[in-house]
Every structure is written in C-alpha cells, then in structure tokens.
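Revision sheet: structure tokens.
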Amino acid sequence: MAKFKFITYAAGIGLSYWYYGILQEKITRTKHQPDGAMFTCTMTLVLLQCIVNTLFAKFMLKFIFNQGVDRTNPNYYRICSLTYLTAMVSSNMALRHVNYPTQVIGKSCKPIPIMILGVLIGRKRYSIRKYIFILLIVLGVALFLYKRDISLEHLFNMKLSSESATLAGIIPTLGIGETLLVMSLAMDGITGAVQERMKTEHATKSGHMMYKVNLYSTVYLTLATLCSWEIFTFFEFIQIHPALIVDICLFSSLSAIGQLFIFLTVSEFGPLPCSIVTTTRKFFTVLTSVLLFGNSLTATQWIGTFLVFLGLSLDAAYGKENPRDKLKQEKSSKKLK
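Predicted:
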C-alpha cells in the first residue's frame, strides 16, 4: 500500500510539473504580442502561485481532508516558508550570471544538502549505502542534463591558458551565479531539515503544511512586491497582454496540484524521497522527449541514464531503513527534546 501511494504521489508531481514547466517557459521566456515584450514580474507570478496554493489547501482541509488540529510550532512554518522562497529567488537570479546547464547541475544536487542538514538540524540518520545511492542519482541527472560531450583527447590537448584553467567553462569559477546557487542549495537543505523536524516532533500533516507554508509565503511576497512596486508593473503588463491571464491561471492551478502531492510525499515519506522525485522528474521529462522525438544521446548522457536507473533501483531494493534503527532514532530524538 505504501509503495502504491508513493508511486501515485510521484506520478502526480511529475505530470503536474511537466506541464507547469511548459507554461513557465511560455510565460517568462517568450515575447508577448502585440508589442513583443518579455514578462519580468517573477515575484508577482510566485505570489499568485502562493495565493492559489493557500486557497486550494484551505479548501482541501475543510472539505476533503480530515487532519485534525494542527499543533505544529508556528516558527517552523515561518522559517520553512522564508527558506523556501529564498531558494527559489536565488535559483532564478543565478540564471542571470550562469548558463542553464550550470544551474540545473547545481539544483540537481539538492538531495545532498537535505541529507547533510537533515542530520545536523533534523536529527535524521542515514546509512552509508543511502548516501551512495543518492550520490549515484545526483551524478546521473547532472551528466544527463549537461549535454556538452567532452572527449578525453580534447581535455588533454587544451592549452594552459586562463580559459582552459576552467576547462573551457566546464568547471565555472566561483562568481555571483555560483554563490547564488550555493545559497539556494543551503536554503533547500534548511527547508528539508525543518520539514523533518515538523514531521518527527509534531507529525505535521500535508494539508496543514501546505496551507501554512503558502500562507506565510503570501505575506512575505505581498510585502516584497508592494515595496518594489513590481505588482503595479504586473497589472500594467496584464492590461496590455490579457491573453496571459489564462496561462497564469492554469500555471497557478498546476502549481497547487503539484504542491499537494509534494507535501503529501514530505509528510508521509520525508523530504529526502520528495527531493529524489523532484530531481529525477527533470531526467524523465528529458528522456521522454528523447524517446518521442528520436533525439540521439551522447556517450555522457548514456552514462547518466545508467547511473540514475542504477541509483533508483538500488535505493528501491536496499535503501529502506531498518525498523530497529528507526526505533533507535525516535528514542534518541525524544531524549534530545
């Protein structure tokens, strides 16, 4: 039953965010008629998402879910929503300074800070094999999405110039973009660790988590968009480009559905399995595109494909926690309170 629920949640996340990504690119990276202007009000777009997510979660709590009274410490929600928003904003800002493959590779490492900070803050414990399996998945996704295929001959023939010192852009220097990516990953790790504490200390339910995190996020973003005057720019843009309204409504609705499955996964299985699903979602989206349209894979991408399936298979077969270890962890967590 648990496996079926996890597969259902993973499918819900994958399908929702697959079309969500298409709409996101259509809204933010295309020129809109009649004047060919680009949409730049990203904070307001995220604010609309949070509003729809909040209303959707409230509806689900009142009419669908019966999750009782939420006794979670409100400070957990405040911290979680702040780190969640900071991670998103930092990741989007990084694209102004680094190319897309670098950003994707950085974000593909999301499970690593979640595991590290889950241990340091969330009092979580993982086996050595779990670390190895997650590392295989992360490496596989990074290799698959980084489409530049570098041969060994090319690497050995490179001159020791200032450009070749960074392997022609393969290993970027630590600049503003990379710093923003590190910040985003750190915020992802803190978010996962706080969610782990909420899950273990208060058994926080998915509906409450989704509602409260998005409620606080709405407050933060409302203040930010008002102070920056971006919300007024957004309304002016919509008046000139009314066709965007339908796309934004559908975009926000898919966000709410996807987030519901994400919070169901986090509350019932933990933030690490959720991060694995969201990380490999990108892999399966690209792989589906390859299979449907007959695009050829490079040698590097075939290696990445093998590593992802190997990591997922090994984690499914051998990555489960030993019940005795889980009981010891719960007793240790109670002693620390």
